[in-house]
Specification:
Strand order of the largest sheet: 1-5-4-3-6
Structural class: alpha+beta
Oligomer: single chain
Distance between the termini: 94 Å
Number of strands: 7
Radius of gyration: 22 Å
Length: 189
């Protein structure tokens, strides 16, 4: 009889623990994504899938620990920026985001800008708008790729010889950012 009660209590505890763990995993996996529209939720789901791919590759020893760490941090930075943009704008829209470390700026630009000179809202080469920096294990510089309409609008307005249209907010490592809706026109002398 005592043995039967112990088994029943053990099974009940196991089922209860499984339910609690399942609920916690569901809430952690969603990360409160239900507060956003379908576009933002889809992007956050895409980032979760990317993290799973990176996790899988490191578990199979296909990538180095340094690669894993950098890409996991990059995914976290992109998630933080996406959530910030969605909350600040209140819109179910995200631009195409790029997060690069200092030594990766050459992946986006033929002649990489000096990070300490970047301004939040600044448009570089009529292609990217600098959104700011995020510290996620290391500093990532986050850019939004301009859509073709924004690019043609900027080309019609003109920019300075360097291809940079400036906005007034300075940023540095670890500072947040708010996306400027329009870049300030700069005229050349």
């Amino acid at each position: 009889m005592v043995n039967l009660r112990l088994r029943f209590c053990g099974i009940t505890a196991t089922v209860l623990l499984t339910c609690v763990c399942s609920l916690a995993a569901t809430q952690a996996g969603g990360g409160g994504d239900e507060a956003f529209g379908p576009v933002v939720r889809a992007y956050l789901g895409y980032l979760r899938n990317e993290q799973e791919v990176v996790d899988d590759r490191v578990s199979r020893h296909e990538v180095s620990v340094a690669y894993y760490r950098r890409n996991s941090n990059r995914i976290r930075a992109l998630r933080q920026m996406a959530i910030r943009i969605a909350r600040d704008s209140g819109n179910d829209y995200l631009p195409e985001l790029e997060a690069v470390a200092r030594d990766e700026l050459g992946l986006l630009f033929a002649r990489p800008p000096r990070p300490e000179t970047l301004l939040v809202g600044e448009v570089l080469r009529n292609t990217f708008r600098f959104l700011g920096t995020l510290r996620s294990g290391e500093v990532f510089y986050v850019f939004a790729r301009l859509d073709p309409y924004e690019q043609s609008d900027l080309m019609g307005k003109g920019v300075d010889k360097s291809g940079i249209s400036r906005a007034p907010t300075r940023t540095g490592p670890g500072t947040g950012a708010k996306s400027a809706t329009r870049s300030r026109r700069v005229t050349s002398p």
